[in-house]
Amino acid sequence: xxxxxxxxxxxxxxxxxxxxxxxxxxxxxxxxxxxxxxxxxxxxxxxxxxxxxxxxxxxxxxxxxxxxxxxxxxxxxxxxxxxxxxxxxxxxxxxxxxxxxxxxxxxxxxxxxxxxxxxxxxxxxxxxxxxxxxxxxxxxxxxxxxxxxxxxxxxxxxxxxxxxxxxxxxxxxxxxxxxxxxxxxxxxxxxxxxxxxxxxxxxxxxxxxxxxxxxxxxxxxxxxxxxxxxxxxxxxxxxxxxx
Length: 243
Hints:
The chain has helices spanning 14-22, 36-44, 63-77, 96-107, 146-149, 187-195, 210-222, 227-241; strands at residues 4-7, 27-30, 53-58, 82-87, 111-118, 134-138, 160-164, 202-205. By secondary structure, it is an alpha/beta fold. The protein has a single domain, classed as TIM Barrel, CATH 3.20.20.100. Strands 1-2-3-4-5-6-7-8 form an 8-stranded parallel β-barrel, surrounded by 5 helices. Helix 2 (36-44) links the parallel strand 2 (27-30) and strand 3 (53-58). Helix 1 (14-22) crosses helix 2 (36-44), helix 3 (63-77) runs parallel beside helix 4 and helix 6 packs parallel to helix 7 (210-222). The longest helix has 15 residues, at 63-77. It starts with a strand and ends with a helix.
């Protein structure tokens, strides 16, 4: 799983999917809002299936709907399997029969790993952690709660951590919300801040066009933030939290 994940919901063009994978940003998440550009890009890559990590996301709370959705997604993408089944929006323990159905999908070879997406970080260190080997969680310069709620309590071996809302729904990149005297971050600055935390393995992005996809990919090329940059991002984030 590469350092940058791309979501399907915002209109990522097919060619951008291919370029991202070629440059090592290879986690592609087929979510609840599904755009044709990512589907076409992934189908074009099916001859190089081992070059990207495919995640399919389900918010289903009934076993039959979970299975039906996964099977439909795989048909749409012309894929034999998903590397990751992302169980979406679980802010408490995953219900037993949902967990069992996810495990059956894994036993059938339709998915290889189970991930859990949550907006409540303590879920990761509760009994729900047994449901998944990868967690998607909120983290940004404007929402750093995971640094004290999760990071000190991670089990060993550490689960994979994928951060989302890195731009705080665009607020961190909005000049009108930037605290006085501070520069406005770019999207890649927000992603770099998240990836500068060694506990985070990957950051989710939602590009709507090729320019935004290039900005996301540039995160890797720009590298981790230095201490001054991290301090700047924390000041901006703190200002936005206070709005």
